[in-house]
Automatic annotation (TrEMBL):
Protein name, UniProt field: Uncharacterized protein
Highest classification ranks of the organism: Eukaryota, Metazoa, Chordata, Craniata, Vertebrata
UniProt keyword annotations, A-Z: Signal
PANTHER family with a match to the protein in the record: THADA/DEATH RECEPTOR INTERACTING PROTEIN, THYROID ADENOMA-ASSOCIATED PROTEIN
InterPro entries (alphabetical): tRNA_methyltransferase_THADA
Leader peptide range in chain numbering: 1-24
Length: 290
């Protein structure tokens, strides 16, 4: 049996055990810790570097656990781990492999009926529709959990992007020479995905965040927003706007043709940060904390 097959079997069995533990209402701290570790394992198996076979198993696991864990009003995994599972599901819904996307989209058939709008059928959908519905459901569960404030911050961080802390240094050191020799790029779907499809995800997040701000205003008792975190995110976004614009200015003429890859990467990062600032400005206009 290969390593991939062993991992797939282990994930499946562990997930079945997790569902049973949650159903039996275990409150033992050691059990809760194991549940969180399981969640971290699942999330680690959704990256682009993982084999398709592994991501298909994870998609099946998330679909199976969507009603018992991801929409559970009691948050058995805790807020951060549960939100991470949702993020993993959304990552799979945007995977380059069609089978992975289709498998992940089956979660819509497992959503509890009371969480769905009357005009939304509880059936499988195409991945883009499932992604939109998933973010809408997550925003609804934020309210169910009394975590609108924490949810707003989590989605704002997603909108900013999950790059590592060396990105600013990378942008400052952007080399125009790296724009050369990109003949193969024009025919690589994976690289084109850097701009077109992530842009749709960014726009979707921005739209749902704007709706979430309205909910925050209407339901002020369901979770406050940490003002220090808002200021921190705003500072980061302003820095990203400045740094990415400076990097874009250093690119050669007509960068969208001569530096397609680098131009797309920097433009997306700049757009993300600008939308974050827009969201925070909208939030401040409706908040009594600023």
């Amino acid at each position: 049996m290969s390593c991939v097959e062993l991992l797939s079997v282990a994930l499946t069995l562990a997930s079945q055990l997790v569902v049973e533990l949650v159903s039996s209402d275990h409150q033992d701290p050691a059990v809760v810790a194991c549940l969180v570790q399981w969640g971290a394992l699942v999330c680690s198996c959704c990256g682009e570097d993982q084999p398709v076979e592994v991501k298909l198993i994870v998609a099946k696991v998330l679909v199976t656990c969507s009603s018992s864990l991801m929409t559970n009003p009691h948050l058995p995994l805790g807020f951060p781990a549960t939100v991470s599972l949702w993020r993993s599901l959304f990552t799979l819904l945007q995977d380059e492999d069609q089978d992975v996307r289709d498998s992940a989209s089956d979660f819509t058939s497992r959503v509890p009926a009371h969480l769905l709008s009357k005009d939304v059928p509880g059936v499988s959908m195409c991945p883009p529709a499932a992604l939109d519905l998933g973010v809408e459901l997550l925003c609804g569960t934020f309210e169910l959990w009394g975590q609108l404030g924490a949810g707003f911050l989590a989605l704002t961080q997603w909108l900013m992007g999950e790059e590592d802390g060396n990105d600013e240094e990378e942008e400052e050191e952007a080399d125009p020479a790296s724009c050369l020799d990109e003949e193969d790029f024009l025919f690589e779907k994976g690289e084109l995905n850097l701009w077109a499809e992530p842009l749709q995800w960014v726009k979707l997040l921005h739209r749902h965040l704007c709706s979430l701000i309205v909910k925050l205003e209407q339901n002020k008792g369901t979770g406050t927003v940490d003002s220090d975190q808002v200021h921190q995110i705003q500072t980061q976004a302003r820095a990203k706007v400045l740094i990415s614009q400076q990097a874009l200015n250093r690119l050669p003429a007509l960068p969208q043709f001569s530096c397609t890859r680098e131009h797309a990467r920097l433009t997306l990062r700049h757009h993300r940060a600008e939308l974050v600032l827009d969201v925070l400005d909208r939030f401040k206009l409706t908040s009594t904390f600023f």
